[in-house]
Specification:
The structure is a single chain. The protein has 261 residues and is α/β, with parallel strands linked by helices. An eight-stranded parallel beta sheet has the order 3-2-1-8-7-6-5-4. The chain is globular.
Length: 261
């Protein structure tokens, strides 16, 4: 939609920066959108979305045809949106000893990026494993998003470990590092200074926060108000992405219409 005359050009409101963005990045979760709906939706929201993460994990691993997956990827490419599978297929490949084949197939299908996560495998990846997998994925032409945290955490994230791991991943070639939603919900409640402390050390542009599904929209609203509208956010669906954009731009009840304050 950029470059076209907008509906009310004489009204000034906060604007999102143009693509490509290092900040204000929004990663949408595609839960298995039908192709026709996907294309129609992107006519409305394509400018908002920086990456699409395809998260119907059983569907992509054992349901959808290669042609269907490639068509979904191609539709995103039409709108300048890189795509990646979610992290669970990587974790399945890891526990089955098939990471190399997995990365090659992700690239063959036409995905732009891949997520290297550890939130459900029995033990977190070692620094050496993370570095090896980042380099493997990059060797087949993929951008890499790594993730820190557990879906069912039994202890809070340690800020020093997060900082050190993030800096190692970035040095190894990761594009950005994602913090798991379940950990963020706990940190917002028990240790809110974690966010600003970590951002200060690693740089706001290098981290992505999972705003949903836990405590949506309260977590996203709190982060936008506490850390700024330009923080990088993911794990929002097509049903939430337009609301998130309005929140970033200070024009939604979830942030109390701060535009008018």
């Amino acid at each position: 939609m950029s470059g076209k005359e907008i509906g009310f050009p004489f009204l000034a409101i906060p604007e999102r920066p143009p693509k490509p963005r290092k900040l204000w990045v929004t990663v949408m979760s595609d839960t298995g959108l039908p192709l026709g709906y996907q294309r129609d939706f992107l006519q409305i929201a394509g400018d908002i979305i920086d990456y699409a993460k395809l998260i119907d994990h059983p569907g992509y691993m054992s349901g959808y045809s290669k042609d269907l997956i490639q068509e979904k990827i191609a539709i995103y490419k039409e709108y300048g949106i890189p795509s990646s599978p979610g992290g669970i297929p990587f974790e399945v490949a890891f526990v089955q000893g098939k990471v190399d084949a997995y990365f090659k197939r992700v690239a063959e299908l036409g995905f732009h990026a891949v997520e290297i996560s550890e939130d459900m495998i029995p033990q977190p990846l070692t620094p050496s494993q993370r570095e090896t997998f980042i380099k493997q994925a990059k060797e087949v032409g993929l951008e890499v998003f790594t993730e820190l945290g557990r879906k069912f955490p039994d202890a809070p994230l340690d800020r020093v470990e997060v900082i050190e791991s993030t800096l190692r991943d970035l040095k190894a070639g990761a594009k950005k590092v994602v913090i798991e939603n379940s950990d963020l919900v706990k940190l917002k409640r028990d240790d809110p200074s974690f966010f600003s402390d970590v951002l200060k050390e690693v740089g706001k542009e290098h981290l992505v926060f999972e705003a949903g599904p836990g405590e949506w929209p309260a977590l996203a609203a709190w982060m936008i108000r506490a850390l700024g509208p330009d923080i990088n956010i993911e794990n929002v669906t097509d049903k939430e992405i337009i609301i998130l954009d309005a929140m970033r731009r200070q024009l939604h009840r979830n942030i109390e219409y701060t535009f008018f304050q």
